Amino acid sequence: MSRPAPTARPTSWWLSALRRRAERQDHQYEAKPEPPRFEDDVQRRAALKFFNAAFRAEESGIRQAHELAGDVAAWDAELAEVLRLYGNEEGWHRELLEEFLTELGGRVEPMGRVTSTLYRVYARAKRMDSIVLTNLMFETIGSTTYRMALRNVSQPAARRMLTILTRDEAFHVPLNVHFLRRVLQREPGSPRRLQRLYLLLFCSLTLLPLASRPKARAFDGIATRDLMRAYALELGRLFAREHDFALKPPALLLRLLGISVRELTHDHAASPTSVESAERAIDREHVQVHAL
Ligand SMILES: [Fe+2]
Ligand SMILES: [Fe+2]
Description:
The chain is mostly helical. 70% of the residues lie in helices and 0% in strands. It binds fe (ii) ion (2 copies).
């Protein structure tokens, strides 16, 4: 059976898209809704936990992207610039979230045990392909959580924040697929090692809702099993179409969560990693945000 070649875009395409986005970043979203109000303090505390987790993801995103930009500059100045602009978008999210945490009557809190372990392991990654793959998978679960939360959250200020994040992450996921492809072209490394890392991250991230649900569920209303299934589905879909990476998801875990191979490959254009979805996500004002 012949498989269609994955659609890809050159670095210059990503660079011009990011430059266009950077011009419009700051003066958008000026109309702010009323300050956030919640049903009760349990819900407000859960919202604080939710957006604190988002803050940590953005913080790690900007740091890794800018560090990679420094390394990549030696062999691909254009890609380095793409990484820098991408990191800036994460920096912008970090600022928005910091401000939003204050509006919620809270602040940036120290990380919990599970989160800090996860980021400590990530920060130790040295190989560029490991860093990019990890980042891509973090982006995927972030964007999945935001989209699912949008289905349940009705509070206008929180919805505004979730919509901004969802829109941008829709662009970041396929962008990270481009990074991974470029890094592997430059330094192929061991496919087995990358496959092992993919499996390890896949399983750890799919189990993450067991730790996050008790803290954030009163805000986002997402059940543990639903979020685990959605993480596994989106992480599995990541490479279901990009055959050149030859990364295979853990079959047993997918089966346990009731995900079939067909579901992974179904509806190509809607795949979060596709260039089609990046194209739809370039212009923020035209992006249609779909709750999952
Ligand atoms: Fe972000
Ligand atoms: Fe992102």
